[in-house]
């Protein structure tokens, strides 16, 4: 390793302050510049001058940038950084508009830059361990992925509904866990809290590899639940991302040698179950380490902008499905409908 990477951060609001804290603690990286038109309300970077805009951030001489400005500004800021040759991690979602997301993803790919999207839920210790176990073949063929993300209305004022705010995480992590994008979605949503946007949604999906998915998302439940269940031929893995717990339930029949007449019917029975103890690191710290490693040549654990684009597209398909009452297909080249 040579000298430390020089990092810049634009946006010092609710997420920006957490990015600042993690960048300041990140090994191999120096946070050298921050920018926010409104100053530093949380005192996230007391030792640094608060620059006015992305141009000033670039002028500070940075290797990479973290973008935590409101979503409507993502395109302009990200495109300016791409033109300047700066590797960039953009907070989720990549953009609200599919055209803008496509433009951003393409710009970074064509410039040969590392571009990533900050889907923090992927970095939950339970999901990281789950993904690794699935990749290692613990479940064999994947049949179904079910997620439940339920709780009370968030204190932060959201200018969007649950699909763009919360379900976007589940759509991203499901495609990632299965390593397959969505082929189609069917959704039903409702508004129960008097707000303009939907506050409860149920999504049924199918991934390109044939995996079926189901997602329950709302902010109307008087309890908090964050669960991902992946069922495959050899059993099921259950990730409780609130507590960072991962449990495996073995299919007791999976290893049985069935004689010829029974070979066509593969049964399932309850086998052993085991809960794994996990290293519980803050997910945002893992996300920053993964992006630093990507700049240094190992891009195996980042959410690429192309993946971020697919998630934006899937979110739009979910909203369209709920609005029109039809199943929406994402098939076609790069998921074009």
TrEMBL record:
InterPro entries given in the database record: Gfo/Idh/MocA-like_OxRdtase_C (IPR004104), Gfo/Idh/MocA-like_OxRdtase_N (IPR000683), Gfo/Idh/MocA_Oxidoreductases (IPR051450), NAD(P)-bd_dom_sf (IPR036291)
Residue span, Gfo/Idh/MocA-like oxidoreductase C-terminal domain: 131-330
Residue span, Gfo/Idh/MocA-like oxidoreductase N-terminal domain: 6-119
Gene3D superfamilies noted in UniProt: Dihydrodipicolinate Reductase, domain 2, NAD(P)-binding Rossmann-like Domain
Family: Belongs to the Gfo/Idh/MocA family.
Record protein name field: Gfo/Idh/MocA family protein
């Amino acid at each position: 390793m040579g000298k430390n990477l020089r990092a810049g951060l634009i946006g010092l609001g609710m997420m920006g302050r957490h990015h600042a804290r993690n960048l300041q603690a990140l090994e191999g990286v120096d946070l050298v510049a921050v920018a926010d038109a409104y100053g530093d309300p949380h005192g996230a970077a007391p030792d640094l001058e608060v620059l006015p805009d992305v141009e000033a951030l670039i002028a500070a001489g940075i290797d990479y940038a973290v973008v935590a400005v409101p979503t409507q500004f993502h395109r302009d800021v990200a495109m300016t950084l791409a033109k300047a040759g700066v590797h960039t991690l953009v907070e989720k979602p990549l953009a609200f508009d599919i055209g803008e997301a496509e433009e951003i993803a393409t710009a970074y790919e064509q410039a040969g830059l590392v571009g990533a999207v900050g889907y923090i839920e992927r970095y939950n210790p339970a999901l990281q361990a789950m993904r690794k176990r699935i990749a290692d073949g613990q479940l064999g063929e994947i049949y179904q992925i079910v997620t439940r993300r339920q709780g009370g209305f968030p204190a932060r004022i959201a200018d969007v509904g649950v699909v763009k705010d919360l379900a976007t995480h589940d759509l991203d992590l499901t495609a990632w866990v299965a390593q397959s994008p969505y082929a189609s979605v069917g959704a039903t949503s409702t508004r129960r809290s008097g707000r303009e946007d939907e506050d409860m949604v149920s999504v049924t999906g199918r991934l390109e590899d044939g995996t079926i998915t189901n997602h329950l998302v709302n902010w109307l439940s008087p309890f908090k639940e964050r669960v991902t269940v992946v069922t495959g031929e050899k059993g099921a893995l259950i990730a409780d991302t609130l507590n960072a717990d991962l449990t495996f339930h073995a299919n007791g029949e999976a290893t049985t040698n069935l004689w010829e007449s029974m070979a066509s019917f593969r049964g399932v029975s309850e086998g052993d179950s085991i809960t794994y103890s996990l290293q519980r690191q803050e997910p945002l710290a893992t996300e920053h380490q993964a992006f630093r490693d990507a700049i240094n040549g190992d891009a195996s654990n980042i959410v690429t902008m192309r993946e971020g684009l697919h998630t934006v597209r899937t979110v739009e398909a979910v909203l369209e499905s709920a609005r029109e009452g039809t199943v929406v297909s994402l098939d076609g080249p790069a998921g074009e409908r």
